[in-house]
Amino acid sequence: MPKNDPPAVPDAARASATRGSADAAGRRRHAVEPASLAARLRAATQAAHQRLDHHPALAPLIRPDLRRDHYGRVLGAFAWVYRTLDPAFEDALRRLCPDTTYRSSDRSRWLVEDLSHFEHGDRALPPWPAPKIDTVAALVGRLYAIEGSTLGGQVIARQLQASLGVGPSSGARIFHGHGEATAARWQEFQDFAAWACAADDAAKACAAADAMFGELEQLLDLWFEPSGSSLPHPPVPSPLALA
Predict the structure, then answer these.
(1) What is the pLDDT of residue 122?
(2) DSSP annotation of 179
(3) In angstroms, rounded to a whole number, what is the distance separating the alpha carbons of residues 137 and 198?
(4) In order of start, what are the domains of the chain with their CATH numbers?
(5) Residue 76 to residues 30, 97, 151, 167, 220: CA-CA distances in angstroms?
(6) Residues of the chain whose pLDDT is less than 50?
(7) Inter-residue long-range contacts of 72-76, CB under 8 Å, 24+ positions, other chains counted
(8) Residue 48 confidence (pLDDT)
(9) By Cβ atoms counted within 10 A, which residue in 37, 38, 104, 168 is the most buried?
């Protein structure tokens, strides 16, 4: 699997994510070391991450023979997913971490931009139920699965440029993400997570991250399988999820 190893980010670039001396529950800033928490989350989600990587809807994204219609359907699936996830994350951040300025990215807006360039065969599926995010650990774990996708998204963005000729302003905004600022943005999330998540809640955050990967896999199944959409490619490693 392609790996993106972000360069170190100066402390000044991280300040906005962890502003405030403590959140509403009185947690200390950096109650867990960022690198330690990230390592635990990565280890706990390895199997679920690998399953999502090999999902037949996502694997073709890094193949040179990717079809435009398949890519459009992937965009449609993501739009359906993030119409629920984006507001759920924003609501949880305001409720559970009111002292932080960290905010999750507006992926729904990115997908609106992308879908304006593609026919995606939108399906008449009702909104899926928002995940229950009632603790800081649940918030951190679920965000880990989503925010980490921006790293592998850089690999996919380059491949989409080669295979379909699309870039951030022509249908690949969701994968381009924060572009050159991706490494800094990922570090910002890691610092927020370590500040917000108490050390004894790390295991709960890991469970929430693992659940998020599994739910994403199930949602892709729902979007593709009932429609009879062809998924012809054999599984190959995909960097869509956390690289």
Answers:
(1) 65
(2) G
(3) 8
(4) 28-227 (1.20.910.10)
(5) 37, 31, 21, 17, 10
(6) 1-30, 228-243
(7) 72/115, 72/118, 72/119, 72/120, 72/121, 73/120, 73/121, 73/223, 73/224, 73/229, 75/111, 75/114, 75/115, 75/118, 75/120, 75/171, 75/174, 76/115, 76/120, 76/121, 76/122, 76/123, 76/223
(8) 93
(9) 37
